[in-house]
Amino acid sequence: MNSRSLLRSPASRRLLRPVADLIDQRIDRRVEREVRSAVREASAHRLSNELLLGSPGRGLSRVVSDGPLKRLHAEVAALAGDRDAAVRNVATAYRLLVALESLGVGRVAGGTMNICGKLGTIPLLDPPNDEILEIGTLYGMFSTGLLRMMERDGRSPSLTIVDPFAGVQLQPGTTPRPDPTGTPVDEHAVRTNLALAGPAGTAARIRRGYSEDPETRAAVSDRAYGVIVVDGDHSAEGVRQDLQWAEEIAAPGAVVVLDDFGDPNWPGVKEALDEHLKDDTRLTYLGKAAHSAFLRAS
Length: 298
Prior knowledge:
By secondary structure, this protein is an alpha/beta fold. It contains eleven helices and seven strands.
């Protein structure tokens, strides 16, 4: 009888079964230890990821999903006419967003794709000059990021901000409540964040007041702006007034960005733009990216 036949015999199987069972048990214990170790490591990575990108401390998660990211790439590429540039700028904007919220005070208002869409698209639309006006800023962190994105494009941005700085985020029809970050909404917080952008941030003009106030408008209507970000009063009437003002102060070829366009939470934004575009206007609708409408002034 050869060795193979011997190992296959009933007697040999009975004799070797305890040895085989012992080997199986050792393998099972080793596999179990490795699985437990992998689970612990995965849990630690998940916890670290949640602390860095999760919603605690800012109210919204910064974790990115494949579907929304691909849609944003397509939307920015359609606006800019360059897919490679769109992918590059969205990635740069995302890293910048995470860095700013890690180093700054407060947060950037809005969802992750919305923020990255605005930051990534504006430089690619080649504004006619480097004068930027932001109507409604919260903590000034978006403007901080926009300064950096413009500088990455070889530009020398000059920023003007208009905001009431009421201590909390104000919107008609909503109940004012403390920000999820716990940081008061005030000019000091904005200045702290703008300093992260270096000289362009520290040189920014800040006008405290509502964008519909004649005094506020007069104080900052001393120049033609190449970029105007409308992100203040989201009611239809508030947006309508801001768009009318943008008509007056936009430089020829200026990029006007209307935030939260098409967002079901803020129907007044789309309502106001749709009505505005029916009238005689300098603004042409270019398209949208993640609930932001982009327009070009004639």
